[in-house]
Amino acid sequence: MPTMIFVNLPVTDLERAKAFYSALGFGINQQFTDDKAACIVISDTIFAMIVTKPYFETFSPKTIADTSTSVAAINALSRDSKEEVDAIADKALTSGGLQTNEPQDLGFMYSRSFQDPDGNMWEAMWMDPGHVE
After folding, report:
1. What Å distances lie between residue 70 and 64, 65, 67, 86, 121, CA to CA?
2. Sign of dihedral through CA atoms 46, 27, 7, 116?
3. Cα–Cα distances in Å, from 29 out to 38, 64, 66, 74?
């Protein structure tokens, strides 16, 4: 079985968060979804567990980061082209997300960053495969 990643993200409004991630084109695995959390399917091996803050607080004795003033992580997702980077970032911005930084175009790499309605940060990026070789 391939290694999978499950990124757990605290959210204040589960239905709003589900609508946001669905608008980005991601699915929801109903088997792992209830009134406290939802499993967002990003790919066959990447998932975001969006979790209500009260339930998220049971996961750790640490305080949940205030994403309106600080960042705990930036979750980066590769895309197959610059156009796909723009497409997902544009969907994020029209679905309640906020732009985090200006787009970066380094020629061989292109990225755009945004945050979901709860301030969780994401970056979509494309890298020229020829440059990596």
Report:
1. 11, 7, 5, 25, 10
2. positive
3. 7, 25, 27, 23
Residue type, 34: D
Quickly list H helices, the chain: 14-23, 53-56, 82-94, 129-132
Q: Which fold has domain 72-133?
A: 2,3-Dihydroxybiphenyl 1,2-Dioxygenase; domain 1 (3.10.180)
User: Which CATH class for the 1-59 domain?
Assistant: alpha beta
| Burial of residue 130 (number of CB atoms within 10 Å: 0-12, 13-18, 19+) | exposed
- CA neighbor of 64 nearest in space, from 52, 74, 76, 75: 52
Count the residues in the chain.
Answer: 133
pLDDT in tens, 26-66: 999 999 999 999 999 999 999 999 999 999 999 999 999 99
| pLDDT 10s digits, 72-83 | 899 999 999 999
Q: Which two tokens stand for residue 42?
A: 């990003």
Domain assignments of the chain as residue spans, ordered by start: 1-59, 72-133
Q: Which residue has the tokens 């709003």?
A: 16
